[in-house]
Fold this protein.
Amino acid sequence: MRKVLLALAMFLAAGVVYAQDHIESRWYGLYTVVDYSYAMDMSKETDKLTMSELTGVVGFQFRHETAVGLGVTYLKESTDGYTQLPLFVELRSYYNHNRLSPLTVLQLGYSLPLGHSSGGDNAITINKGGIFFGAS
């Protein structure tokens, strides 16, 4: 786990060094995105599911509206049922040329399993990767 987080930090640091003067609303240049998400099950069931996700993307905006990047995400389920490492290509599309602009983000890649298993009576192990798709 430490090696994965260290590699992700180095990947993002390299992008930050080259993208220090870049604002995403400019016409072209390098950009970096770091995102952390935490999802929690609010149902009344006893088996609660929580997920945490750390994403890093380094890319290049080459037109007013279009940017392409490479990214990696670290996905972890709270009971250690599975941990995944999706590697993906990201396409960003901006809808106007202002500093505050709506955008669409598409991510497509492959998710690698890191092979953790849950404990307890209902122990499961998920050691399968697969195609990764994300949209926002």
Observations:
- Strands lie at 29-40, 50-61, 66-77, 83-94, 103-113, 130-135.
- The longest strand covers residues 29-40.
- The radius of gyration is 17 Å.
- Residues 14 and 100 are 26 Å apart (CA to CA).
